[in-house]
Amino acid sequence: MTAGRGKPVLRPGDWVTYDDGDHQVVALAGTSVRLRSATGAESVVLASHLMAAPDFACTGTEPLPAMEPSGLLATLAEPVLEAAREWERHMVEVETGLLPGTVPGTPPRPGYDPAAFSLMERMAAKARELGVTVRTVQSRRSRYVRQGVWGLVDQRTTQTWEATGRADARLVVAVKQALDAETHTSTGTRSRLIRRVVKLVEATHGEGVVPMPSQRTFYKLIDALSTGRHTFGSAVTRRQTANRPEGPFTPTFADRPGEQVQIDSTPLDVMVVLDSGLTVRADLTIAVDVATRTICAAVLRPVGTKAVDASLLLARMLVPEPMRPGWSASLRAAASRLPHRRLLDVDTRMEQAAAKPVIVPDTVVIDGGKVFVSDTFIRACDRLGISVQRARPRTPTDKGIVEATFSAINTLFVQHLAGYTGRDVARRGERVEERAVWTVPELQDLLDEWLLAGWQARPHDALRDPFRPKKPVSPNDKYASLVAACGYLPLVLRGEDYLELLPVAWRAINDYGIRISYRTYDNAELGPHRRQHSGHTAKHGLWEVHYDPYDLSQVFVRTQQGWVTVPWVHLPLVNAPFADFTWAHARRLAAEAGLDDTNETAIARVLDTLLTRAEHGPDTRSAKVVGRTRVAAGVHTPAAAPEIETDPDPEPEARPPTAVAGFGVFDAHAEAERWL
Asked: 16, 189, 286, 440: least CB-packed within 10 angstroms?
């Protein structure tokens, strides 16, 4: 099968193994090979099919020579490589009779002429010349034929370096176990780890059974095995490193807007001021479109995000972002590269829209946080036709784009704010709380404006034009290029749609009204439904009641005639909206004062005192609850679509021009007055 060393050739007469049998090559015709089996049967196969067969092999010929590992040769010391090159000169002379680089026409040296001396005689002459045995020359030549120069290298110099040296294997296993145990513990010193390793070895194998190295060698062993683990560095980095997936990281791709939207929450590195004067950190919940890197919506809260916030995020994604007083005219959609004119025919609200696209998600990726896996969020996604995909536990790379976006927001926006805390305690300045000046509503408006001016119009390194791959484009530019191929039709949300996104509770309508968590809701509109079956047999006749956890002053009941807004009976006593955590704190204060925490009248008095006077007293915990309540009530709800009235007898020639619809802000009190 070979025509000289290093030139594989398949010729007639060669024997090959193919199709679980031995065959002889009878003839070659183009890319076809005629084979004759040992039993005499002949067949014709393609050469590519023959050589790709799993059991194909050539028999009766020398094995194919291996390519020289040039990378390994480069790692050798210069004297070792020079010795191998010198042996190569001798092997070439044994093979050809001439040394490499000899001038053409030069006769071979005595004893090396292939025409006069056999291969064994030439190898014997080389052995006498070098002062070695013939067996040594034979073995060197054999390795040179198979491996080239690498076969002539002194293999004692190529042994792989062991990081653990000559340490006992049982000690190495114990050190690795101790290093694994340090992942989720506080960072300690090497001396503490050595003590734990010694105790582990003695408990496993017995005292004095495994030899222990010196302290200096022990330190070297630990340093060699802890490389890349951050065992004695930052605990956060150590946990993050251990949490990385073992497999390769696969980037997330999307070909159209809304194909995948990633949602997550995180505390921002900035202190905000509550109405009570307390300073706390704000939670940020965002939704990022993978295809365009558009931040579809961002919601700020002063404390832990509630389930309704994730639903509110969906509602804000599905309506255009309205222009607000004080914003520059350059932030309008009409002044951007978005396909604004074509969208006006679909939704008249786009006339007052800001330069941020409305993206209807097909799939949202969430983690295992209770805010996202709640019934409220899942029900909202199901209603809007959105598929929910959960990331694997403790695998942040499943939603790496939204995780990276949080880091970008902290770098590009948050660090320039007053009250910036830094990403950890080591980077925090002195008395950061005293520098905080932004309230949550103010910071929300500032964030919304920055998203338009600083994020949507800023080139993103992950977004590239296929015709200009070296130039990054902005999220708005990427959206404009993709929407032409994918189309666009925004989903219209009405005021009632916001009610659908609220949490639901199933309650009976009694003579006194509706009771939820020791609160009573009642009004005259519930009269026809008292003590009546709702028609939902699966819920035992209970009625569907929706409530806003940030405003428990009223609930919304679904009836056959539509929604009914029902106020809290003690609302005149409190005369202010309150949240679920405010009510829970008022009950706790009532119990501490010796009152009945199930008597809503007593709780209402405590609640009124809490909302009106707590910020002036020494109870900072109550002041914090008051501030959170006012901030939660002050954050605006998603814009509602305009109601469209139908003219019973339209006259096209007399119809006035279409007016631009305004952005309505959903107000439960106003809706109640309208329904009354």
From this structure: 189
| CB neighbourhood size of 306 (10 A) | 24
CA nearest neighbour of 337 among 490, 489, 477, 487: 477
Reported as a single tens digit per residue, the pLDDT across 435-494 is 888 888 888 888 988 988 889 888 999 898 878 888 899 998 888 888 777 765 555 566
Calpha distance 218→175 (Å, rounded): 10
Distance CA(452)–CA(476), nearest Å, equals 10
Phi and psi torsions of 507, nearest 5° = -135, 160
Copy the structure tokens of residue 183: 């992942």
Contact 474, 460 (CB under 8 A): yes
User: Nearest 5 degrees, angle CA 503-CA 509-CA 511?
Assistant: 145
Q: Is the pTM of this model over 0.70?
A: no
Q: For position 317, what pLDDT does the model report?
A: 80
The answer for residues whose C-beta is within 8 angstroms of residue 576's C-beta and 6 or more apart is 553, 608, 611, 612
Judged against a pLDDT cut of 50, whether residue 389 lies above it is answered with: yes
SS3 track for 358-405: CCCCCEEEECCCCCCCCHHHHHHHHHHCCEEEECCCCCHHHHHHHHHH
In contact, 26 and 12? CB cutoff 8 Å: yes
